[in-house]
């Protein structure tokens, strides 16, 4: 809303500053003149509605000093808007780079620390992403890269007042964490999502040295066993913590230390503990911190006396501000009612660590009418999803995870009927992640008719290449319907038996698609070509085990520069094809991860991404940059 | 079970007894046959047996009790999540031996058949990491999955393994029978797999199952990249636990021990025992007080009461672990 208002403002600014060049001779923005780009007046390099005016017409004094522009631009948070702003003209580029405080880098190798340091002098918060998403599924060698250290070194030099660092899929060593802890005095927030490489020592350093820490958020931790001693490293006078999430660490923390920490951090609003915290202990924590807004419980498996149960119930009821709940490891039905008191206000319920059955979840959801986001395990089965449909009309996001991904217990899981049931009851659904063993075209078609506002549609039929289980047809029709009906679709993951037809439809209709994940699908190069030619907003394309070859790869030459990245593994690519791509598009990094025992001419895993930093220097031996 | 193929694959020479049984096995892979094969193999190179298990798991020697959820490729396994890890460990065995395409496909077919009739030995439940080789890419017929089988790789390699032909895609194909595990598929993160599988085993199908019915503790092996979890309550005593752990972690110990022994037939079952309980490793546990103790000193019940965590550590590191006496325990109660 702010953005649209601002874009009108920009238009106005545009039209009223008759001569952009005049702006550049105004009083320089605080120190900017030292870093200013070429001060000589030049024509703006983008044609504008008012370009006619700026072409040699009389130069009117513009009432737009840089200070105003600066003020206006500093209100913009969205990095996408900022990127657009910076393209307007040199002056705007300058003002923008001086007012940007939040840095977002979607692919750490697309740019180098040096380039970033030169362009943005005043960064307070950084979000950095490293490895391609398939590293989550063990498809990358362990030492692939994405080490945060070079970035930290640069940050320490150029951004001594850095406050926030949010990393995703990066390698973070203990040394890096220690360096971080000691280099930034005002450091406040550390968030590590799917990161690896660190251990006790790193966390110890953070806890010890970051005096002003407000957030320590470790999600989906990939590292090995981490001890629990780090919690004890927070000094006794440390009180500033607002967000603490160590749910995915398997450390055994000292409960005494945790208790004391929670009791003295009065601003704590997010607390997500790990399995080592028992129910009884949780109850004590809740008593100390009823102001919590997001809670991740510890293990729910403990024999409680009736009195203890009551206490637990009361504690939950007293958390009036609780809107997100997760954890619940090993929760069993006798203890679920303890939660009921806190459910009315819940908007996010994450049951993905609790393999609940349909009856249990039905009872629980009956108390959660305000849910917007729900994550469950497929042990709830279709019946449980029916309960979702009937109890949670405001639901916007549903994720169903498989309890038994390798089908060892032959469980029923969820199917097309559960999906239908949810779509009937939850018309506002726009995000779905659904792991199932069977699906029909008809069901999906109906689902998207019921919920046409999908922005994220990730359907994973777990058996690769499985057709519609009723008709035995390919699942083309299903995804065609998704592409056609869901005009706002931004992210799509396809599965099941699919021919090129699916991709024709996607290319034809999915005009807002930004991320596409494909596995075990397609019939020929044509499929991939359709997507590359048809989806104008495509940013990330990840493909595995599909019959797409060099022709398909090379059909997207110019496209890849407009995308963040392309991943293709176990397809029909050869080294020759990849080398040709690398040669033709010098601004792309084409990396091939060699499989040790395979044919030298085959390109097993290919990762292509645009970069202004050139080929990276830190690739391990198995990764070849062409 | 196609033993000979596995041997070819691994590159070790086949001991005579196994060859005799191979013909029998090549025609069927029923569990009874497997037991017969195991009988024949018992006492012979356990290294091979273990490797076989790793290659095509499921065969358990009769004297080893089939403990629920404990076999290396059995039910609740953390290592599925780390497919890449288990495969890289298998590399130690594979030692670069390439598997003949026809061998594998032949073997695959049998697996496809076997899997459907899941037996107690339950191949179907196990993660078969075979990898047909040589199916050249570029087959652009309408058969999608067929054409997807272009980059088939060795088991030992850290790349996608193709499912059995049971999944070959004729349009009439129903849900594929294969339980083959493909790297990175389904696309779930490892941590999620771990929690869920252990949850699943605990909760089962019974609502409100007894909360005190299980006692899961983590087991780590020094040097292994990932931990395991076992339910102490299902064991009757130390012998069972140690046997189970031994099976669970065999691949690691073999990996370290077996490299120098490739092709040698001297490694017997007792040697494995020694590995775990003798010179190489000691089994320790962490008790309620947080102290690391040597397993085996106290009565079993006491042990399960106080054990929080297990660790198989190298003997060299186990210096200083004092056995705890009954008296000390009692005095602390």
Question: Mind explaining what this structure looks like?
Answer:
The complex is a heterodimer of chains A (626) and B (333). Chain A has 626 residues and is an alpha/beta fold. Chain A is built from 25 helices and 21 strands. Chain A has a 21-stranded mixed beta sheet, covered by helices on one side. The longest helix of chain B has 21 residues, at 238-258. In chain B, 40% of the residues lie in helices and 8% in strands. In chain B, helix 2 (16-27) packs antiparallel against helix 3 (31-41) and helix 4 (46-55) packs across helix 9 (238-258). Chain B contains 12 helices and 5 strands. By secondary structure, chain B is α+β, with helices and mostly antiparallel strands. Classes of the chains: A alpha/beta (626), B alpha+beta (333). At the A-B interface, loops of A face helix 5, helix 7 and helix 8 of B.
Percent helix range of chain A: 25-40%
Assembly context of the chains: heterodimer
**C-alpha termini separation of chain A:** 44 Å
* Main sheet overview of chain B: 5 strands, mixed
Biggest contact:
A-B, 81 and 71 residues
What is the averaged pLDDT score of chain B? 52
Biggest sheet layout of chain A: 21 strands, mixed
Q: Helical percent range of chain B?
A: 25-40%
Order of adjacent strands in the largest pleated sheet of chain B? 2-1-5-3-4
Number of helical elements of chain A: 25
Gross morphology of chain B: globular
Question: What are the key terms here?
Answer:
heterodimer; A: alpha/beta; 21-stranded mixed β-sheet; 21 strands; 34% helix; 15% strand; globular; B: 333 residues; five-stranded mixed β-sheet
Summarize the structure.
Chain A is α/β, with parallel strands linked by helices.
Write the layout of secondary structure elements.
The complex is a heterodimer of chains A (about 625) and B (about 325).
Chain A: H1 2-16, H2 20-24, H3 32-35, H4 51-54, H5 66-73, H6 79-85, H7 90-99, E1 102-105, H8 113-119, E2 125-129, H9 149-158, E3 164-168, H10 174-183, E4 189-193, H11 200-209, E5 215-219, E6 243-245, H12 255-264, E7 270-272, H13 279-288, E8 294-296, H14 306-317, E9 324-326, H15 340-343, E10 348-350, H16 358-365, E11 373-377, H17 381-391, E12 397-401, H18 416-425, E13 431-436, H19 441-450, E14 456-461, H20 476-485, E15 491-493, H21 500-509, E16 515-519, H22 525-534, E17 540-544, H23 550-554, H24 557-560, E18 565-569, H25 575-584, E19 588-593, E20 605-610, E21 623-625
Parallel strand pairs in A: 1-2, 2-3, 3-4, 4-5, 5-6, 6-7, 7-8, 8-9, 9-10, 10-11, 11-12, 12-13, 13-14, 14-15, 15-16, 16-17, 17-18
Antiparallel strand pairs in A: 18-20, 19-20, 19-21
Chain B: H1 3-10, H2 16-27, H3 31-41, H4 46-55, H5 83-94, H6 101-116, H7 144-148, H8 190-203, E1 216-221, E2 228-231, H9 238-258, H10 269-277, E3 281-286, E4 292-294, H11 300-306, E5 309-314, H12 326-332
């Amino acid at each position: 809303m702010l953005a649209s208002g601002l874009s009108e403002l920009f238009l106005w600014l545009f039209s009223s500053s008759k001569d952009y060049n005049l702006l550049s001779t105004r009083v320089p923005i605080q120190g900017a003149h030292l870093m200013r780009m070429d001060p000589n007046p030049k024509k703006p390099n983008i044609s504008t509605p008012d370009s006619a005016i700026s072409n040699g017409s009389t130069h009117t004094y513009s009432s737009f000093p840089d200070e105003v522009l600066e003020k206006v631009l500093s209100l913009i948070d969205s990095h996408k808007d900022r990127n657009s702003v910076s393209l307007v003209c040199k002056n705007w580029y300058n003002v923008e780079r001086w007012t940007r405080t939040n840095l977002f880098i979607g692919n750490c190798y697309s740019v180098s620390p040096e380039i970033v340091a030169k362009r943005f002098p005043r960064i307070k918060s950084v979000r950095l992403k490293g490895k391609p998403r398939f590293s989550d599924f063990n498809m990358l060698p362990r030492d692939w890269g994405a080490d945060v250290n070079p970035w930290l070194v640069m940050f320490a030099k150029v951004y001594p007042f850095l406050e926030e660092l949010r990393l995703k899929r990066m390698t973070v060593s203990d040394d890096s964490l220690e360096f971080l802890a000691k280099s930034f005095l005002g450091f406040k927030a550390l968030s590590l999502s799917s990161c690896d490489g660190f251990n006790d020592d790193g966390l110890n350093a953070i806890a010890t040295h970051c005096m002003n820490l407000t957030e320590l958020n470790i999600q989906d931790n990939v590292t090995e066993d981490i001890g629990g001693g780090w919690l004890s490293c927070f000094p006794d006078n440390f009180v500033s913590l607002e967000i603490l999430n160590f749910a995915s660490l398997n450390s055994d923390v000292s409960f005494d230390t945790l208790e004391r920490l929670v009791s003295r951090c009065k601003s704590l609003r997010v607390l997500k503990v790990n399995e080592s915290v028992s129910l009884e202990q949780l109850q004590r924590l809740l008593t100390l911190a009823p102001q919590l807004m997001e809670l991740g419980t510890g293990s729910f498996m403990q024999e409680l006396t009736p009195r203890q149960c009551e206490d637990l119930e009361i504690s939950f009821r007293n958390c009036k501000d609780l809107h997100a709940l997760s954890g619940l490891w090993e929760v069993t039905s006798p203890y679920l009612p303890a939660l009921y008191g806190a459910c009315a206000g819940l908007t996010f319920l994450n049951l993905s660590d609790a393999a609940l059955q349909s009856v249990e979840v039905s009872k629980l959801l009956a108390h959660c009418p305000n849910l917007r986001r729900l994550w469950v395990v497929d042990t709830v089965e279709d019946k449980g999803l029916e309960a979702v449909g009937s109890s949670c009309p405001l639901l916007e996001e549903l994720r169903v995870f498989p309890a038994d991904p390798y089908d060892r217990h032959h469980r029923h899981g969820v199917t097309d009927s559960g999906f239908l049931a949810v779509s009937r009851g939850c018309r506002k659904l726009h995000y779905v992640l659904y792991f199932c063993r069977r699906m029909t075209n008809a069901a999906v078609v109906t689902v998207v008719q019921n919920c046409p506002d999908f922005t994220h549609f990730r359907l994973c039929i777990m058996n690769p290449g499985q057709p519609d289980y009723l008709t035995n047809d390919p699942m083309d029709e299903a995804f065609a319907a998704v592409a056609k009906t869901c005009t706002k679709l931004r992210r799509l993951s396809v599965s099941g038996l699919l021919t090129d037809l699916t991709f024709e439809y996607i290319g034809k209709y999915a005009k807002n698609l930004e991320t596409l994940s494909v596995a075990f699908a397609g019939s020929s190069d044509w499929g991939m070509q359709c997507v590359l030619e048809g989806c104008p907003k495509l940013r990330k394309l990840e493909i595995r085990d599909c019959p797409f070859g060099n022709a398909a790869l090379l059909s997207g030459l110019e496209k890849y520069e407009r995308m963040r990245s392309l991943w293709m593994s176990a397809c029909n690519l050869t080294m020759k094809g990849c080398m040709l791509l690398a040669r033709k598009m010098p601004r792309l990094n084409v990396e091939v991860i060699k499989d040790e025992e395979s044919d030298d001419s085959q390109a097993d895993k290919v990762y292509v991404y645009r970069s202004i930093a050139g080929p990276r220097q830190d690739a391990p031996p198995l990764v070849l940059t062409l | 079970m196609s033993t000979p193929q596995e041997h070819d694959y691994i590159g070790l020479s086949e001991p005579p007894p196994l060859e005799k049984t191979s013909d029998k096995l090549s025609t069927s892979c029923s569990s009874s046959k497997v037991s017969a094969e195991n009988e024949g193999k018992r006492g012979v190179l356990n290294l091979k047996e273990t490797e076989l298990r790793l290659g095509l798991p499921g065969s358990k020697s009769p004297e080893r009790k089939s403990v629920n959820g404990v076999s290396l490729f059995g039910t609740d396994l953390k290592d599925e999540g780390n497919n890449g890890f288990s495969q890289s460990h298998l590399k130690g065995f594979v030692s670069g031996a390439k598997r003949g395409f026809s061998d594998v496909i032949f073997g695959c077919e049998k697996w496809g058949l076997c899997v459907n009739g899941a037996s107690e030995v339950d191949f179907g439940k196990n993660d078969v990491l075979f990898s047909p080789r040589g199916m050249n890419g570029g087959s652009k017929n309408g058969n999608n999955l067929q054409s997807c089988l272009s980059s088939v790789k060795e088991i030992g390699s850290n790349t996608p393994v193709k499912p059995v032909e049971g999944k070959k895609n004729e349009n009439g194909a129903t849900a594929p029978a294969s339980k083959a595990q493909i790297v990175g598929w389904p696309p779930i993160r490892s941590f999620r797999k771990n929690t869920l599988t252990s949850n699943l085993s605990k909760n089962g199908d019974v609502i409100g199952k007894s909360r005190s019915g299980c006692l899961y503790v983590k087991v780590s092996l020094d040097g292994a990249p990932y931990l395991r979890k076992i339910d102490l309550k299902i064991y009757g005593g130390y012998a069972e636990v140690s046997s189970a752990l031994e099976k669970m972690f065999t691949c690691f110990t073999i990996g370290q021990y077996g490299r120098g022994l490739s092709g040698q037939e001297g490694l017997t079952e007792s040697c494995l025992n020694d590995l775990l309980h003798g010179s190489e490793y000691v089994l320790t546990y962490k008790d309620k007080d947080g102290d690391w103790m040597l397993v085996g000193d106290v009565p079993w019940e006491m042990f399960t009461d106080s054990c929080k965590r297990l660790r198989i550590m190298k003997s060299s590191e186990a210096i200083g672990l004092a056995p705890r006496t009954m008296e000390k325990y009692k005095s602390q109660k």
